[in-house]
Amino acid sequence: MTTTGSDRLPTSEDDFVVTTCGRRIAVRRLRLAAADRPISRITLDVGRDQGGEPGAWASLTADEARDLARLLLLQAGPAEHGTEPADPSGKASSV
User: Fold this and answer.
1) Cα separations (Å) of 55 from 23, 27, 48, 49, 71?
2) What Å distances lie between residue 54 and 8, 40, 47, 94, CA to CA?
3) The whole model's pTM is what?
4) How does the average pLDDT of the chain come out, rounded?
5) H helix count then E strand count, the chain
6) How many CA atoms lie less than 13 Å away from 2 in the CB half-sphere?
7) What is the Cα–Cα distance from 72 to 64, expressed in whole angstroms?
8) Rounded to an integer, what distance in angstroms lies between the CA atom of residue 59 and that of residue 30?
9) Separation between Cα atoms, residue 86 and residue 95, nearest integer Å
10) Coil, strand, or helix at residue 67?
11) Beta partners for residue 16, in sequence order
């Protein structure tokens, strides 16, 4: 079943999304206050699945987070419309 627009189930809060398979993906900012140089990262926490299998966690720089967001958006449109995604490198997609 595919839902779009107003038919779509509410699956997100301010800092997480719940996928249709039940995984909760949280996105937050982590700040480590080192005295000489504070470190700030974006964290991505993919929680356990419905069967209890462990998820994954990643800590990204701001640039890495932007690159990930760009790649997700490149795939979202074509997935929604059932078309082949554009390959940012110019190569043919092999899905």
Assistant:
1) 8, 14, 5, 7, 21
2) 27, 25, 7, 29
3) 0.65
4) 80
5) 1, 4
6) 5
7) 12
8) 8
9) 12
10) helix
11) 26
- Domain residue ranges in the chain: 12-79
DSSP 33: -
What value does the CA radius of gyration of the chain take, rounded to a whole number of Å? 17
Q: Give tens-digit pLDDT for 14-58.
A: 789 988 888 899 999 999 887 788 889 999 999 988 888 888 999
Tokens, residue 56 = 């994954």
Query: Among candidates 42, 86, 47, 50, which has minimal Cα distance to 67?
Result: 42
Max Cα separation, the chain?
53
How far from 35 is each of 5, 20, 38, 39, 47, CA to CA, in Å? 47, 42, 7, 10, 32
Q: Which residues pair with 45 in a beta bridge?
A: 26, 57
Amino acid at 62: A
